[in-house]
Structures are given as structure tokens and as C-alpha cells.
Amino acid sequence: MKTNMAHRLLVRRIWTLSAKDIRCLRTSTAATASISFSNSLQSTTPRVSFLSPSRTLPRSLPHTSRREVSFNVQDHEDFTERVINSELPVLIDFHAHWCGPCKILGPRLEKAVAKQKGRVAMAKVDIDDHTDLAIEYGVSAVPTVIAMRGGDVVDHFVGIKDDDELDSFVSKVIGQ
Question: What is the DSSP letter of 84?
């Protein structure tokens, strides 16, 4: 009985790990947890640990070398390096995972940035993870988008915009 409860608790803990927690796990700990978990289930099917990064892509997905349209800011140092010191203009999407309008705006903004084919970058900042950045840039509501060029704020907006307004905003930021 205790063993079953221990397995359920382990499964629940693994299931609820955040991405930040997973990055912090040591490979040996992840491998040990994966091995003990799979051994405890007495399964004959091979298991792939989702805690360790895979180095191969599934055969059904072609590998492309296209540049990513956006990136998630990891910390203040990352923000300084990739946003403030960027040679490209950067749109900063301040959002939160619980924000409905943010979930609508994010993909639309990425689409508008992708149309510019590398002439502008997009940084995504979760205000719950990076409250210091939100305060520093005066973000009081989400979604807030701030445009920076050469480390200086050149424009911003709060709330949702339609596709044409986003295209116009992005074009204005890159100087078209």
C-alpha cells in the first residue's frame, strides 16, 4: 500500500514540474527518477524520459534551420544582452500565462514579426517570472508591448490590436 502511494506521489510530482524545475534537475537525478519509476511499473515497453533533452527529431518532422521569430527572456542579464544590446529593433511582449488577451495577442504579434523576415526581433517577458522588468518599464496591465531600438523605448501599446494595426506598428518600429 505504501509503495503504491509513493508511486502516485512521484508521478504527481513529475507531472506538475514546471519547465524551470526541469532545467534545474541534475541529469543523474532525472535518470534515477526515470529508471526507478519505469522499473516500478514493471512495463515491458521502452520508456523515453521527458526530463532529458532529446538530440534527435522525429522522422516525420523535417529539420529546418530557420531563425526563431521570438524568444523568452530568462533573466535580467539575458534581457540586457538580447534586448537592450540588440542591433535589431526588438518588440517586448509583457504577458502572463493567466491572461486571456495575452494568449490572443502573442501569436498575432509573432505573425506580424515573422512577416518582417528578420528585420525585427521579439522578446517575451512573463510578468510573474520577471516582475522587476515589468516594474522597470512601467507595465501596469497586460498585454503590454514595448518597442526598443538601440536600447531606447521608441513606442508601446497596451491591449489587443487587430492584424493590420500590428503590421503597421511593426513597420513603424523598423522604420518603413
Answer: I
Tens of pLDDT, residue by residue over 37-48, are: 444 444 444 455
pTM: 0.62
Is 99 known to be catalytic?
yes
Residue 159 gets the label, from left (phi > 0), alpha (psi -120 to 50) or beta, of left
The C-alpha angle with vertex 116 and arms to 110 and 117, in degrees rounded to 5, equals 95
- What is residue 128's DSSP assignment? T
Catalytic residue among 92, 102, 125, 142: 102
pLDDT band for 36, please (50, 70, 90 cuts): very low
Mean pLDDT, the chain, rounded, equals 78
Q: Name 73's Cβ contacts closer than 8 Å, sequence gap at least 6.
A: 79, 82, 83, 92, 123, 124, 125, 130, 133
Q: Reply yes or no on whether 102 is catalytic.
A: yes
Among 69, 83, 92, 99, the one annotated catalytic: 99
| Closest to 123 measured CA to CA, from 93, 163, 149 | 93
Instruction: Give the DSSP H/E element, type plus range, for residue 121.
Output: strand 121-126
Quick one: cell of 132?
A: 522587476
Q: Which of 47-56, 90-99, 122-131, 138-147 is least confident?
A: 47-56
